[in-house]
From TrEMBL:
ATP binds at residues 7-10, 173-174, 184, 209-210. This is Aspartokinase. PROSITE patterns: ACT, ASPARTOKINASE. Gene3D superfamilies: Acetylglutamate kinase-like (3.40.1160.10), VC0802-like (3.30.2130.10). One of its GO terms (biological process) is homoserine biosynthetic process. One of its GO terms (cellular component) is cytosol. GO terms for molecular function: aspartate kinase activity; ATP binding. Substrate binds at residues 47, 74. Residues 263-337, 343-411 form the ACT domain. Its EC number is 2.7.2.4. Belongs to the aspartokinase family.
Length: 411
């Protein structure tokens, strides 16, 4: 009997009818002889609503209390799904992250999974129960509830699949798989049948929220095979797995992220150790940073610019407060009207022609590029937020649609 871990996202359990149909899908797997662990997210937009309530009460709510609040969303959906399965005659049990043995660091709202003790889950599986686990949460060494960052149920599922040595992990969501661009913005985007962990990790990192980046990294380290697929169809989805890198350099997907802020530290002293000080503070507050640019020095001063996620804006305030006690700088400028557009594919930065084509397409759309960063797997540009949809569509046409046409012509 094979053991499968499945994860159902918020849209998959958005109302009671959807919860019931998820229960039917799970039961059909059990009827085929599988053992099932199902990880569930909060219903629909519950987490967003809880977040708004917290911000109405306090402009920057204490992280521990935020976790206490946000984790309740998943508790509702696991209880309902377990009841729905029991109503179908299939025994099931709902477990919080802590009850499921998920131990995390105590970094509230962005906790990391440290260990998973799978004994209790195995005990219930041996009683022929379906085990329903609350996604996105765990328990710290102080027995406090922690959460794993937005989209964290994906990570719960992949980490459990690794800890339980599951055959594979299925991520059920509201699209048929991982696409060459967000299908909501590019209707001609097509489903990718197989993608490597590296490329998927880069896509997740750059804003393709279909998988949380840590879920991909977990799966890669522990060799978990992951399939992303739709809750609302039987169609096969996208397999994220180990793939040999191909010789030909190819853009696999266009990814965008409008959830970013450009930060500029103005006129910081131009001497050794200052950049290290700024980035140590950012790292200590767990603010992830991308696209770092340091301006030319003038009169012993420099500007240091970088891009952060909007979710880290509260932490940034703390970083600025701490730094202003240690370094003299003129101030901090924030620009929220920006977005990051990226092309992703193994080896693309090694082909300068690809960079040229990307910049040329953006210039044809009269889109100004503010910052650029590259790695072996991607080229990213910071552009005005108002131009993001046309940028995604134009780049998709250049690198995916037109490319397919030329491949067909060559054959
Ligand atoms: P869930 O609630 O199931 O976790 P999410 O909203 O977190 O679902 O992720 C699914 C969404 O990710 C899709 O509805 C889609 O709009 C978005 N998305 C962004 N980029 C991509 C992509 N390249 N492929 C598929 N979906 C994408
Ligand atoms: N409910 C959480 C969120 O909305 C976790 C998840 O859905 O993965 O971010
Ligand atoms: Mg998600």
């Amino acid at each position: 009997m094979s053991l499968i871990v499945q994860k159902y996202g918020g849209s998959s359990v958005a109302d009671l009818d959807k919860v019931k149909s998820v229960a039917c899908r799970i039961k059909s797997y059990v009827d085929q002889g599988h053992r099932l662990v199902a990880v569930v997210s909060a219903m629909g937009k519950t987490t967003d609503r809880l977040m708004e309530m917290a911000r109405d009460i306090h402009p920057s709510p204490p992280d521990r209390e935020l976790d206490m609040l946000l984790s309740t969303g998943e508790q509702v959906s696991i209880a309902l799904l377990s009841m729905a399965l029991n109503a179908l005659g299939q025994e099931a049990i709902a477990l919080t992250g802590g009850q499921a043995g998920i131990h995390t660091s105590n970094f509230h709202t962005k906790a990391k999974i440290i260990t998973i003790d799978p004994q209790r889950i195995f005990r219930h599986l041996n009683e022929n129960k379906v085990v329903i686990v609350a996604g996105f949460q765990g328990m710290s060494s102080d027995y406090d509830i922690t959460t794993l960052g937005r989209g964290g149920s994906d990570t719960t599922a992949c980490a459990l699949a690794a800890a339980l040595s599951a055959e594979y992990c299925e991520i059920f969501t509201d699209v048929n798989g991982v696409f060459t661009a967000d299908p909501r913005i590019v209707p001609r985007a097509r489903k990718i049948n197989r993608i490597s962990y590296d490329e998927m990790s880069e896509m997740a990192n750059l804003g393709a929220k279909v998988l949380q980046i840590r879920s991909v990294d977990f799966s890669q380290v522990y060799g978990v095979k992951v399939q992303v697929r739709s809750t609302f169809s039987q169609e096969e989805g996208t397999w994220v797995e180990k793939m040999r890198s191909m010789e030909d350099v190819k853009v696999r997907a266009i990814t965008h992220n409008g959830n970013v802020i450009k930060v500029v530290f103005l006129e910081v002293p131009d001497r050794p150790g200052i950049a290290a000080l700024i980035f140590k503070e950012l790292a200590d507050c767990s603010v992830s940073v991308d696209m770092i640019i340091q301006s030319e020095g003038r009169e012993d001063k420099k500007d240091v610019a970088f891009v952060i996620s909007r979710e880290d804006d509260n932490r940034l305030k703390k970083v600025v407060d701490n730094l202003s006690r240690k370094v003299q700088f003129k101030g901090v400028k924030l620009d929220e009207a920006v977005a990051k557009i990226s092309i992703v594919g193994a080896g693309i930065a090694s082909d300068p022609n690809i960079a040229y084509r990307m910049f040329h397409v953006l210039s044809e759309q009269e889109i100004n590029i503010d910052m650029i960063s590259t790695s072996n797997l991607r080229i990213s540009c910071l552009i005005p937020n108002s131009s993001i949809n046309e940028a995604v569509q134009a780049l998709h046409k250049e690198f995916i649609e037109d490319e397919e046409v030329s491949i067909h012509e060559e054959l």
